[in-house]
Specification:
Layout: H1 2-14, H2 23-52, E1 64-65, H3 75-80, H4 87-93, E2 96-98, H5 102-119, H6 126-144, E3 152-154, H7 155-174, H8 181-209, E4 213-214, E5 219-220, H9 238-253, H10 258-285
Antiparallel strand pairs: 1-3, 2-3, 4-5
Length: 301
């Protein structure tokens, strides 16, 4: 009885995907949608539990790089929540990898994307070309722009990053981009603005990371700083906002496909949490005044 009800619900869920030429395309879309919806729900739940209810041991799942603490939760947070992680769970919660392994995301994602273009679509669509450019650009930035550091990220972030780009590439390979020239033009403008702004932001961040700051009590050499030039005078993480613009352009050029809407929302949720964490970090860490008022969206958030 319960199995029959479950199958009926699943049939209703996939009914929106009718009209696809091949069943495997439906499977890819369903997997992609479940992946993004699960990610969005997970980010929201972990954020609420860790920030509103102060469940300290969940905080590492929201932090990476400079904002990642060395311990999964402070003793006070554990006492407040009456939660004592056992040794095995403590090791899992503190399991991190170097943040510079971000480069693996783009190497694996780019290789998978090229595979899809050669063996699945046997060509390249506008959406695939822009995704190819995005992956290639980010790979080059990891190689030649980003400073090598000792920053860490939780292994869960690493696994999500490894799976994210193949998921996006798979969806891009099965979606028909039957959109008008006007839609293509608007999406290209958004893609261009997002890409150029992000390149400039990463350049400014690299220059700032090479600056030595000496105070009376502490030496920062080199230090990851928030640049004092536009667009960092508007928000703490304009490079995150630029990334959201890039994926929003993917949503438009995909013909406003539901899967890429979910993809854009997933990216927005993830980067918004990261931006808020970074904004808070800047406020309490900088030995110089930090005047930026917003975290990621100019004049809004």
């Amino acid at each position: 009885k319960y199995l029959s009800q479950a199958m009926s619900l699943f049939s209703l869920f996939v009914s929106d995907y009718e009209g696809e030429e091949d069943d495997w395309k439906v499977v890819v879309e369903v997997i992609g949608d479940v992946y993004f919806i699960g990610g969005i729900v997970g980010i929201v739940l972990v954020t609420i539990l860790s920030e509103v209810f102060n469940v300290g041991w969940l905080k590492p799942f929201l932090e990476w790089g400079k904002t990642l603490r060395k311990k999964c939760a402070s003793k006070k947070e554990d006492d407040d929540n009456n939660f004592k992680p056992n040794s095995t769970m403590q090791q899992l919660l503190n399991l991190t990898v170097p943040k510079r392994w971000f480069i693996h995301f783009y190497i694996f994602g780019l290789a998978f994307h090229i595979f899809c273009m050669i063996f699945i679509t046997r060509g390249i669509s506008i959406l695939q070309f822009r995704l190819l450019f995005q992956l290639g650009r980010r790979l080059l930035e990891c190689l030649f722009v980003h400073r090598k550091s000792t920053a860490q990220m939780h292994v869960s972030h690493y696994l999500v990053g490894l799976s994210f780009y193949p998921c996006v590439a798979s969806l891009a390979s099965i979606i028909d981009n039957n959109v008008s020239a006007g839609v293509i033009s608007v999406s290209f403008l958004i893609f261009f603005i997002g890409s150029i702004t992000q390149i400039y932001c990463h350049y400014l961040l690299r220059r700032s990371s090479d600056i030595d700051i000496i105070t009376s009590s502490q030496r920062f050499s080199p230090k990851y700083l928030c640049p004092n030039k536009w667009p960092f005078t508007w928000v703490a993480c304009p490079h995150y906002f630029s990334e959201i613009l890039v994926y929003f352009s993917f949503y438009i050029v995909s013909g406003f496909h539901t899967s890429f809407l979910l993809c854009t929302l997933f990216v927005a949720c993830n980067l918004t949490v990261g931006a808020l964490k970074t904004h808070a970090y800047y406020k309490i860490t900088f030995p110089i005044p930090y005047a930026t008022q917003k975290a990621i969206i100019p004049f809004v958030l």
